[in-house]
User: Fold this.
Amino acid sequence: MSLASNAFQDKVYASIPLTSSVFTLNGNDLKFAFNAGFKEPYQVGLAADSSGLIYSVNSASEAQFGGRLFRWIRSTTTGSGSAR
Assistant:
């Protein structure tokens, strides 16, 4: 599991690679945020910036392409994330 915090938005995110999912963390409660959409072995690492963007590496493509960092933008209408 990886954790990332965004002090500007008072949010903590938890990445659980086995489920290919990212959650928001509030105390002991995990709330599903979005599916990373990566193949095994899923995402590795997690970071958040002051704009609310979430970043992670697709470890499945790391060996083939190397250095690929993905970011997710939270949709204000659906609440789901999309990779860019």
User: Anything to note?
Assistant: Residues 2-83 form a domain with the Thrombin, subunit H fold (CATH 2.40.10).
